[in-house]
Amino acid sequence: MKALIQRVTFARVQVDGEVTGEIERGLLVLLGLDKGDDQASAERMLDKLLAYRVFADDRGRMNCSVADIGGGVLLVSQFTLSADTRKGLRPSFSSTMPPADAERLYDDMLASLRERHPAVAAGRFGADMQVCLCNDGPVTFMLEV
């Protein structure tokens, strides 16, 4: 499981011109699910996401998490993060979780995230989405569990 997290001042996702999720200050999370990922790895990822210190404290150091600042989390499924790009000029998706399984795990993660954090928004699984954001810093990290 991979999560590309970006510290943002705002982020929004649209499907067919309709806004499906929007946050102000917080984290945009692009989530890639791999074969073998399960509920346990999903919970570990959520623990890490909510506690990862990427926001500045009073001294300007990255010592605060999204939970500490009460920021938003925008969760967007992105299967291309699971692509194998080591060989050739075309990505291989042989290591990605099958779509039906990935959708179930994504939905479970989203439900769990909403139980654990007050400000959560989301994209639409499997849809052609347009994501608009202002990366703050820029600060971007790849988390893996």
Automatic annotation (TrEMBL):
GO terms for molecular function: D-tyrosyl-tRNA(Tyr) deacylase activity; Gly-tRNA(Ala) deacylase activity; Ser(Gly)-tRNA(Ala) hydrolase activity; tRNA binding. Keywords: Cytoplasm, Hydrolase, RNA-binding, tRNA-binding. Homodimer. It comes from the Bacteria. This is D-aminoacyl-tRNA deacylase. An aminoacyl-tRNA editing enzyme that deacylates mischarged D-aminoacyl-tRNAs. Also deacylates mischarged glycyl-tRNA(Ala), protecting cells against glycine mischarging by AlaRS. Acts via tRNA-based rather than protein-based catalysis; rejects L-amino acids rather than detecting D-amino acids in the active site. By recycling D-aminoacyl-tRNA to D-amino acids and free tRNA molecules, this enzyme counteracts the toxicity associated with the formation of D-aminoacyl-tRNA entities in vivo and helps enforce protein L-homochirality. Its main location: cytoplasm. A motif (Gly-cisPro motif, important for rejection of L-amino acids) lies at residues 137-138. The keyword Lipid biosynthesis does not apply. Its EC number is 3.1.1.96, 3.1.1.-. Belongs to the DTD family. It is found in: Cytoplasm. GO terms for biological process: D-amino acid catabolic process. InterPro entries: Daa-tRNA_deacyls_DTD, DTD-like_sf. It comes from Pseudohalioglobus sediminis. NCBIfam families: D-aminoacyl-tRNA deacylase.
